[in-house]
Design a protein that fits this description.
By secondary structure, the protein is an alpha/beta fold. It has 11 helices and 13 strands. The longest helix has 16 residues.
């Protein structure tokens, strides 16, 4: 595998109209999940991918499993669990494209994934293990599962990427900080946002944050900044890689996940960090123009057309 990940999969219900959910009568059923979105993005870009997860043994779980398998992702480490409902979330989308998420994910089928069941052989054969702060936020036991996976990756020379993806509806700032800081010694690629760094290091002072990051042996530190693009830390300063302008933002959910997938694609291709971020910025810009968590994640040829490196033939 080029990239594998560990995480929950959910059925996402997207509203038929924008505005408060109390006024929404109809929804479209889709699938989502931070780690799942990233691995779908990687698969569409052409990488060999795998997913470790647990889903409910119900119609929603089967739908997610079949959809993910159809994307070309290896699902040999995904199991359907009896008597556990597949997790759900409902999205509230505003006219600006910004959204709120309402989770219904307890009891989660991932409760049945135990540390001792981690597929060590599966992890050690990957080039990159990608994790986020979402899975450990769902259940306390998941925090130890991710930590053990990171230790296995480190032991066998598997690179680790981490997107803190701090969801304060799932855990507190203190819980997020305590957990994620224990992960950083094992991380090679940190893909984060400014607000998440401020939470992790309890300061908004950029110099103090940079100094704190120097305590870890991180190969690349990438700071996502939405429509503005992203920054990478080099020689104790943040270097900007500008984003791309889009005609209309439809839905911002999944843009950060698409960014992660594209950046990791570039790293696997041995591109420079700046080239990888430029590709990631392009994918993020493409994702926000499509409704849904992962519907806008593009194939490589689509990104090349967006960047002007491939000609698009309509007829």
């Amino acid at each position: 595998m080029d990239i594998i990940t560990i995480g929950d999969g959910m059925i996402t219900f997207d509203p038929s109209v924008k505005g408060p959910l109390r006024y929404v009568d109809e929804f479209k059923r889709k699938i989502g999940g931070a780690e799942l979105n990233v691995i779908i993005g990687c698969a569409r870009l052409g990488l060999k991918t795998g997913w470790i997860s647990r889903l409910g043994k119900d119609e929603f779980g089967r739908h997610i499993l079949n959809t993910v398998r159809g994307e070309g992702i290896d699902v040999s480490e995904v199991k359907l669990i009896e008597n556990y409902p597949t997790s759900l979330n409902f999205k509230e989308i505003h006219a600006s494209g910004d959204s709120k998420t309402f989770y219904y994910r307890h009891k989660s089928p991932t409760e049945t994934l135990k540390v001792e069941e981690l597929p060590i052989d599966y992890i050690k054969e990957a080039k990159i293990l990608h994790v986020t702060g979402v899975f450990p936020a769902i259940l306390e036991q998941n925090r130890q599962i991710i930590l053990q996976a990171l230790k296995v990756a480190k032991q066998y020379g598997v690179k680790v990427s981490l997107d803190p993806n701090i969801r304060l509806k799932l855990w507190s700032k203190e819980q997020a900080r305590e957990t994620l800081l224990t992960y950083l010694p094992y991380v090679d690629f940190l893909l984060t946002g400014r607000e998440e760094l401020e939470i992790l290091f309890e300061t908004k002072n950029e110099v103090e944050i940079i100094q704190a990051l120097q305590n870890y042996e991180l190969k690349h530190i990438i700071v996502k900044d939405g429509a503005k693009g992203a920054f990478y830390l080099e020689n104790n300063r943040l270097n900007e890689v500008p984003g791309f302008k889009v005609n209309k933002v439809v839905d911002t959910v999944g843009a950060g996940d698409g960014f992660d997938a594209a950046f990791l694609y570039g790293i696997i291709q041995n591109w420079s960090v700046e080239e990888s971020i430029r590709l990631a910025n392009a994918v993020g810009a493409m994702v926000v123009q499509v409704e849904g968590d992962n519907e806008g994640l593009p194939y490589l040829e689509d990104v090349e057309v967006f960047l002007g490196t491939r000609e698009k033939i309509e007829r």
